[in-house]
Amino acid sequence: MTKSNTQSTNLSDSGANPNFDLSINKRYNLDKVFAIATWVATSFALLVLAILLIDVLTDGLGRLNWSFLTSFSSRRASSAGVLAPLVGSIWLLVITASISFPLGVGAGIFLEEYAQDNWFTRLIEINIANLAAVPSIIYGLLGLQVFVRVMEPITRGRSVLAGALTLSLLILPIIIITTRESLRAVPDSLRQAGFALGANRWQIIREQIFPIALPGILTGTILSLSRAIGETAPLIVVGAVGFITFLPQLSFQGLQSSFTALPIQIFDWVSRPQVEFHQNAAAGIVVLMIVLMLMNSTAIFLRNKFQQPR
């Protein structure tokens, strides 16, 4: 610091550039203030998160056991469990991923690799970016009209399929944007080298571009699915119920049956006045967090696996 001040004084004295003020001390002080502000913001966020986690774990761990995981919902808090909502969330997750991943990745590849740069393409890009910021309740209203009412002969109304289609709409813009950004990060020299060797565009995408972009695409997809599994508002609008004492069949008829999910069940328990149901809600939150942690761990594993040197 002393040496820098001396150099600053020497430069000012020499008159090398009188219009330029180094102000080393002032800039270092501003840097310290900014560092302290970021530490305070980070510490505050971690403190709030720690308080929430401790409160949930304190209320929910005592209720969390095997019987809670394998029991259906009940009017008696001591007998209620999360079997139906847990299976319903897994059902929704699998169907949503099966619908949104091929559609989102395909749309991202087309827009980034095939589409021409014109006003129509730019209009689509702007709309996709705007759709990613639309509140989830709007998607719920759209799903209610399209998938529950218009497509009732196929979805049978308020069913697992209608809920999964609504959640697919919710995360589709995020997957498209993630896919485009991952493809854009691949050096353009690989495409030019492929064309120079006589390969067509699809061969270049399949053999060179897509495998390199796949870790980023998978990470974005699984993180968007993590958002979908925690959504409550669109599922309430679509018609998920809070009291179910059966599991959907593993068939197409099962997709057309009524369903519930962990966020719906937690919301139902929290809205009741009995303290015992609040403890059930805390235990349900713990189960939901474990599912989310498993999904995030899967994302990290897949990213590290495909990032290995080819």
Major sheet characteristics? none
> What is the fold named in CATH at topology level?
MetI-like fold
Element order, helices and strands?
A: HHHHHHHHHHHHHH
Fourth-level CATH superfamily = MetI-like
CATH class: Mainly Alpha
Number of helices: 14
Q: What portion of the residues fall into strands of 2 or more residues?
A: under 5%
What share of residues is helical?
over 70%
Q: What is the CA–CA distance across the termini? A: 46 Å
Provide the number of structural domains. 1
E-strand count: 0
Short description:
This protein is mainly alpha-helical.
Describe this protein's structure.
The chain is built from 14 helices and no strands. It is an all-alpha fold and 310 residues long. The longest helix has 37 residues, at 24-60. The two termini are 46 Å apart. The radius of gyration is 26 Å and the shape is globular. The chain has a single domain, classed as MetI-like (MetI-like fold, Orthogonal Bundle), CATH 1.10.3720. Belongs to the binding-protein-dependent transport system permease family. CysTW subfamily. One of its GO terms (biological process) is phosphate ion transmembrane transport. It is found in: Cell membrane. The chain crosses the membrane at residues 33-58, 79-103, 123-148, 160-179, 209-226, 233-252, 281-302. Keywords: Cell membrane, Membrane, Transmembrane, Transmembrane helix, Transport.
